[in-house]
Every structure is written in C-alpha cells, then in structure tokens.
C-alpha cells in the first residue's frame, strides 16, 4: 500500500478504537514514529495528516527537526536518553517520553531552559530488557521528582512485551492507567499526570481501550 493509504488506515483504526472505548477522537494523539525513514518520507507522512513525530535517537531527531523546521508538528523524543546527550536535545523536544532514572532527571533539571513536558517511563511488565522505574520505586522517586522545577510530569509511558498475548497486554495497560490515576490524585504541583503514552503498531487498539492518550506508531505506517 502507499504511505498515504497506510496512514489513512492507521487513523481510521484509531478512530474506531476511540469509538469502541467511548472516548472522543480528540483525546488520543497519534505519534508517527519516523525512526525508520528519512526526512522526505517523514514530510509525506505530515502531508498525509501526521501532527506529532517521534524519534528515538538524538542525532536523527536533531537532523529531522532541522530539515523539517517549517512544519507545524510536535516533536516527541521517545527513546532512552543518555545523560551526556541531554544538553544537545532536551530544549528541542515538545515531549520527552522516557524519563527512567533520577540521575537523568537531575541532568534535565540542570540543562533545561524551561519546564520540559516529560513522561515517567514505568516498567510494568518487569522485563529485564525494558527501561523504566519499577512501580515499587515510585514512592521514593516521586518526592524527588517533585523538587525539579524544570520537569513537568505530564503522564506515564510504558511498553508491553512484544510477544505477550492480548490478555497480558491489556492487564499491563490497565495497571499503568491505574497507577497514573493514583499519582494524579496525590496532587504534586509539577505532575499534572493527565496523559498516558502507550501502544505501538501491534497493540495500539488495546492501549486506547485502556486509556492511552498518546499512541506511538511506526511500522504500521511503513509496511
Ligand atoms: C520504535 C518505537 C515505537 C514504534 O514501534 P512500532 O512497532 O514500529 O510501531 C514506539 N515506541 C518506542 C519507544 C519505539 O522505540
């Protein structure tokens, strides 16, 4: 299929998932993960309706943002970020999805020139290969994050195991949404915690059913 047809199919599937979940379409944003393609294909995707772009590598993020500087899109950094690269990229992002350690938070606090919208990455599935805080850690981590004036914690981000069955994936997404609500109700000043970044090409309908507000979709656009 053409890129445009793929994009239409993704957007249609997202709106169907929203209807099924009983949420307005405007409550779910699609982040087009463009890490697989160059700027010209990314531009085609913007023309096909993409409003939010996601990249997971600092060099490619910066390159694309420069090449596509005239486009009115939001820029999401979705990959794990090494501390030494924070200064290169953090002031260029609209959203950072992978806050996964206190050391990284301290570096962001130091380098940011404004409060940066961040998602706390949580390792709900407890896979060793996955980044993110363990749920049990958060009790100690949140009071520390609450002291960082240059970090605005807009929500949680998680990734489901690649090969899990739908029931397991649903349970992980439901748990993430419950955790988001718990933190939101704690009422920390820099933690609006209204957003949930979860769902990729394989599982985004399940994520929307569980309350995702940002889905990060790559492969489905380019197959
Ligand atoms: C690559 C990537 C995605 C998109 O995955 P697809 O399976 O290609 O849709 C989403 N989130 C993160 C963090 C990624 O690195």
From TrEMBL:
Role according to the record: Pyridoxal 5'-phosphate (PLP)-binding protein, which is involved in PLP homeostasis.
Keyword Protease: no
Domain of life (superkingdom): Bacteria
This protein's name: Pyridoxal phosphate homeostasis protein
Family (UniProt): Belongs to the pyridoxal phosphate-binding protein YggS/PROSC family.
NCBIfam families (UniProt xref): YggS family pyridoxal phosphate-dependent enzyme
Signal sequence bounds: none
UniProt xrefs under PANTHER family: PROLINE SYNTHETASE CO-TRANSCRIBED BACTERIAL HOMOLOG PROTEIN (PTHR10146), PYRIDOXAL PHOSPHATE HOMEOSTASIS PROTEIN (PTHR10146:SF14)
Lineage: Bacteria, Bacillati, Bacillota, Bacilli, Lactobacillales
């Amino acid at each position: 299929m053409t890129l445009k047809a793929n994009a239409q199919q993704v957007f249609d599937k997202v709106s169907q998932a929203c209807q099924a979940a009983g949420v307005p379409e405007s409550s779910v944003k699609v982040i087009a993960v463009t890490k697989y393609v160059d700027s010209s294909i990314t531009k085609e995707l913007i023309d096909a309706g993409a409003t939010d772009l996601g990249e997971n590598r600092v060099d490619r993020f910066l390159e694309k943002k420069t090449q596509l500087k005239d486009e009115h899109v939001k820029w999401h950094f979705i990959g794990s970020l090494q501390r030494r690269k924070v200064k290169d990229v953090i002031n260029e992002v609209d959203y950072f999805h992978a806050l996964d350690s206190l050391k990284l938070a301290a570096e962001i606090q130091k380098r940011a020139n404004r409060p940066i919208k961040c998602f706390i990455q949580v390792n709900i599935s407890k896979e060793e290969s996955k980044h993110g805080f363990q749920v049990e850690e958060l009790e100690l981590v949140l009071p520390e994050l609450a002291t960082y004036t240059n970090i605005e914690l807009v929500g949680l981000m998680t990734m489901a195991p690649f090969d899990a069955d739908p029931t397991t994936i649903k349970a992980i997404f439901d748990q993430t949404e419950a955790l988001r609500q718990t933190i939101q109700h704690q009422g920390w000043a820099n933690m609006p915690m209204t957003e949930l970044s979860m769902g990729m090409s394989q599982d985004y309908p399940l994520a929307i059913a569980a309350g995702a507000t940002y889905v990060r979709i790559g492969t489905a656009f380019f197959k």
